[in-house]
Every structure is written in structure tokens, then in C-alpha cells.
């Protein structure tokens, strides 16, 4: 289907393809102990595939992992480091992506570019309190999942 036509000169036209929506795969629970004296930080990771235009600006297709604690912002900040290690089960290709962050809630996005095929990945989170130092009382958690790129 053609979304629009743009004239390029007399008698010529180029088609702009429709934007393809990403495909929701699943939501993973990737909870962490809270570095502040409070309850568990319940991080939910939404997994999407068929991403043609990833947020990292690299060419698609890609798999997007979007983590958020979906809680009300706290009075003091968190700092976090997220590392995703992945393996394409068809090609054997592997990779690792690292994303740091900071905020009053835990929110991060990691886009991976594993090539076509089934992909297994492991998410490792390091979550700390921001108190005079960037990472006080760090807490570690991990979870795993699969998606097809």
C-alpha cells in the first residue's frame, strides 16, 4: 500500500512505504531489590519485534526491550545500568548492549540487532540509590526471554 506520492520531476514519482507497527511479543517481570529502604522495584519489560525504525537510529529490523517500574516517582533518584546479552539461536551470532540511566522511576530501553531468527537474551540490571555518589547500595537482578527477529 502506498501512503503518499511525491513528484521527483516531470512524469516521475516515488512511493513512501507505510509505517509498520512493531509487534508486541510479551512482558517479562524483572524485579529488583530496592536500594532505598522501600518495597521491591517491580520492573516490567515489554518485548517488541519487527521494529523497522529502532529508537537507537540503527537500521532495523530490531528487537526492543522497554523496562519501566510503572510506579509513582519517588522523592530521591535511582541510577541504573542495564546490560542485555543476546544470542541468535539460528546463526550463533552474539552481542551485548549496555545502557545507563538515572531518574525518579526506573525507565530504560535497549534495542538489539541480532539478525533474523529466534533470539535468547538475558537482562542484567544494577539499580542503585543516588545519594552523594552515583550508585549507593547497588542491587542486582536478572531475567531472561526469547523473541524472533
Number of contiguous helices: 0
Ends distance: 23 Å
The CATH topology is given as Immunoglobulin-like
Integer tally of domains: 1
Helix fraction by DSSP (H/I, runs of at least 4): under 10%
Number of strands: 10
CATH architecture: Sandwich
Protein structure class? mainly beta
Detail the poorly predicted runs.
1-8
Outline the biggest β-sheet: 4 strands, antiparallel
Run of helices and strands: EEEEEEEEEE
CATH class, named Mainly Beta
What labels describe this entry?
149 residues, single chain, Immunoglobulin-like, 10 strands, four-stranded antiparallel beta sheet, elongated, mainly beta, disordered N terminus
Detail the topology: elements first, then pairings.
Elements: E1 2-9, E2 12-17, E3 23-29, E4 44-51, E5 62-68, E6 78-88, E7 94-103, E8 107-112, E9 118-129, E10 136-148
What is the compact description of this entry?
This protein has 149 residues and is mostly beta strands. Helix content is 0%, strand content 59%.
Structure description:
By secondary structure, the chain is mainly β. It is built from no helices and ten strands. It has one domain: Sandwich (Immunoglobulin-like). Helix content is 0%, strand content 59%. The protein starts with a strand and ends with a strand.
